[in-house]
């Protein structure tokens, strides 16, 4: 199944949950990480319940400090 992660095409196993994808990318335990699927922000508590579909657009943002 094809998805887009931060505008980069990536082939993943079909029927994958968002948490599984993020764990594979080692982003599931990172603090300050926000995720949106098709422009909808997915709260971290719902990552394990969010099923991904073909051609979903996933945006991963990491918070940074600065001034």
What is the helix tally? 1
Largest beta-sheet characterization: 5 strands, mixed
Low-confidence runs of at least 5 consecutive residues: none
Order of helices and strands: EEHEEE
- CATH superfamily name? Beta-grasp domain
Binned strand content: 25-35%
Order of strands across the main sheet: 2-1-5-3-4
- CATH architecture field: Roll
Explain how this protein is built.
The protein is mainly β and 67 residues long. It has one domain: Beta-grasp domain (Ubiquitin-like (UB roll), Roll), CATH 3.10.20.30. 10% of the residues lie in helices and 31% in strands. The chain is built from 1 helix and 5 strands. It has one helix spanning 18-24, and strands spanning 2-5, 8-11, 33-37, 40-41, 57-62. A 5-stranded mixed β-sheet has the order 2-1-5-3-4, with no helix packed on it. The longest helix is centred in the N-terminal third of the chain and has 7 residues, at 18-24. It is globular. It starts with a strand and ends in a 5-residue tail after the last strand. The model has no long low-confidence stretch (mean pLDDT 91).
């Amino acid at each position: 199944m094809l998805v887009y992660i931060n505008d980069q095409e990536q082939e993943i196993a079909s029927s994958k949950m968002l948490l599984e994808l993020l764990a594979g990318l080692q982003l599931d335990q990172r603090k300050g990480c926000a995720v949106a699927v098709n422009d909808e922000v997915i709260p971290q508590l719902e990552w394990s319940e969010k099923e991904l579909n073909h051609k979903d657009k996933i945006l991963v943002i990491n918070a940074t400090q600065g001034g």
